[in-house]
Amino acid sequence: MTINLTMTVVLAVLYSVGFYLIMQRSLMRILIGIVILGHGANLMLQTVGGPPGYPVMIGTAPPEQMADPLPQALALTAIVITFALTTFLLALAYRSWMLLGHDEVQDDIEDRRIMRLERRLAESEESEEELETEATR
């Protein structure tokens, strides 16, 4: 099996752009990133599936000339998963737009509270260590 350099570069660009968009705070950018990653996954599955061949039906062609049906089945599964994620994220973006007027993902209040608590615990441990080192001098 030969590696197609052009297809490798296209896959790298698709995955890079998709992951970059997923890391954004806007739900629409996240949605576009998921869709681009889905296209990248489908393209990768079809690329690694090998060259085209005859249909997989016994008696129509020798087995070595038949196409591998597994990458095609995996690509159909990836299409369904991408479609499900797309509809879910569209519903989230629509609800966010209707309730808040924008689709930006905000930090959770509980996460902020936990971060403050961890910061206070770390500061108290540092102060205790400083008191212990001063006491031993």
TrEMBL record:
Keywords: Cell membrane, Membrane, Transmembrane, Transmembrane helix. The keyword RNA-binding does not apply. Its main location: membrane. It is a multi-pass membrane protein. The keyword Transmembrane applies. It is found in: Cell membrane. InterPro entries: CPA3_antiporter_subunitC, NUOK/Mnh_C1-like. The chain crosses the membrane at residues 6-23, 30-50, 70-94. Gene3D superfamilies: 1.10.287.3510. Belongs to the CPA3 antiporters (TC 2.A.63) subunit C family. This is Na(+)/H(+) antiporter subunit C. The lineage of its organism: Bacteria, Bacillati, Actinomycetota, Actinomycetes, Pseudonocardiales.
